[in-house]
């Protein structure tokens, strides 16, 4: 069978090739997939390494796999039926962490369920909304997400805080930074000086290297791993159902941005794997799968899902467009999600190990936003939109007391960095007239 035949998403490579390719997709997204759950669990005040945090990590793995099957296998109009790997979205971390810290996980997860339903409905008319989210708006939102999360990464790398498993006195110690820097150095070394699966799994291998050093330094506690069971049932609405309009609005706004990101990933996958444009049916199906995956995950304690861009790169690198390869990856994630011991091993990871990894990940999120903004010509109008949107979004997040008299929900939205940046960028892009430079472009 020729290599070009793999541009058909319905063609399956031999199992001896398909299984390693599926595992490669898992390795490329594994660390990024579980990190949002760890951060939101910490914001909610859950014990680091405790059973509740382990459960959230399990749900991240399980529903990444289930949402992937929604995409690759499909159900009626649901699913692009392309090699789209789903995973827990970083885009929602800032909003959900703020909601979880101020209103609790019940409100946050309820908002995820409703936001997922809205996201699903977007599939019916997503192609008609794309004009609201040009690269200028989407790039600004993604940049704001990355910049908002970078201080979290630095805090983790330095050892977290007393509310986690580290002592406040050791915050910023050489021991913590040596572990974090090991993760960064190994990740970057593998990414740029190796090829193939090792390069794609660079961050995961870097985390393992940092984990090993942390173990040698006596920073790893395996007690939760021994206490965790091998298999556990999943629990519907583990934190109850608690509706809050502000939380729902915040999550829904990010869902719209996430839907636009998915449109980009579907388009990139079709172009990279088959050198063609994505069809309207594929774009709509991918959006339906995004929303359904998010809503179902929220019911059982999982965070919102979205398509993972790094896996688009694997399709382009291998030239293998087979959706069944990614189906194998989804099945691997589902198996991992049903085994609490795997979640416990991840939860036992010291914060400096995670911090080293997320410094790279969050920095890449910000860089992805900059890359999208690079598509825009830097006219006066464009620069004003960027300046004002980021000033409001990040400024209010850095100085939350500036809006201390706003109602609680509105204050949470105003200080989330993402919501005000998105709102300001959309409004300014719609109302500011194009100048001569824009019209010439």
Walkthrough of the structure:
It is a single chain. With 441 residues, the chain is mainly α. The chain contains 19 helices and 2 strands. The protein has a two-stranded antiparallel ribbon with strand order 1-2. Helix 5 packs parallel to helix 16 (380-398). The longest helix is centred in the middle third of the chain and has 30 residues, at 245-274. It starts with 14 loop residues before the first helix and ends with a helix. The relative contact order is 0.22.
Produce a short descriptive summary.
The chain has 441 residues and is mainly alpha-helical. It has helices spanning 15-43, 51-72, 93-103, 105-122, 135-157, 174-193, 196-200, 202-216, 223-227, 245-274, 280-299, 309-318, 323-337, 340-347, 351-373, 380-398, 408-414, 418-431, 436-440, and strands at 86-88, 305-307.
Element-level helix/strand string: HHEHHHHHHHHHEHHHHHHHH
Query: Count of DSSP helices?
Result: 19
Shape: globular
Described by strand count, sense and barrel closure, the largest sheet is: 2 strands, antiparallel
Mind telling me the C-alpha Rg? Answer: 21 Å
Question: Helix and strand layout, with pairings?
Answer:
Blueprint: H1 15-43, H2 51-72, E1 86-88, H3 93-103, H4 105-122, H5 135-157, H6 174-193, H7 196-200, H8 202-216, H9 223-227, H10 245-274, H11 280-299, E2 305-307, H12 309-318, H13 323-337, H14 340-347, H15 351-373, H16 380-398, H17 408-414, H18 418-431, H19 436-440
Antiparallel strand pairs: 1-2
Give the tags.
441 residues; mainly alpha; 19 helices; globular
